[in-house]
Amino acid sequence: GNQILISYFLDMTILFNEIKNNPYVTYDELAVMLKLNRSTIYRAIKVLINISYIRRVGGDKGGHWEIIADY
Asked: What is the structure's pLDDT at 42?
């Protein structure tokens, strides 16, 4: 219930801040930092993209994250 929602929100805030602090961070690096698996990071980033907080500039190799709005 609420505990899961609060935990998810905190994870999303931490995830957003990690991307903001290092736009070149990878899914794997985020997974290690946040102690979550890569697929969870992938899904959370999709949410941030869908609600227009971040976008990917360039490809998977050599690209980076761009902040569109503050979380």
From this structure: 92
Contact (Cβ atoms closer than 8 angstroms) between residue 64 and residue 23 = yes
Indicate the length of the chain as a whole number: 71
pTM: 0.83
d(C-alpha 30, C-alpha 18), whole Å: 8
Name which of 59, 62, 48, 39 is nearest 20 in CA terms: 48
In this prediction, residue 16 has a pLDDT band, given cuts at 50, 70 and 90, of very high
Tell me, what amino acid is at 47?
V
The 3-state DSSP class for residue 19 equals helix
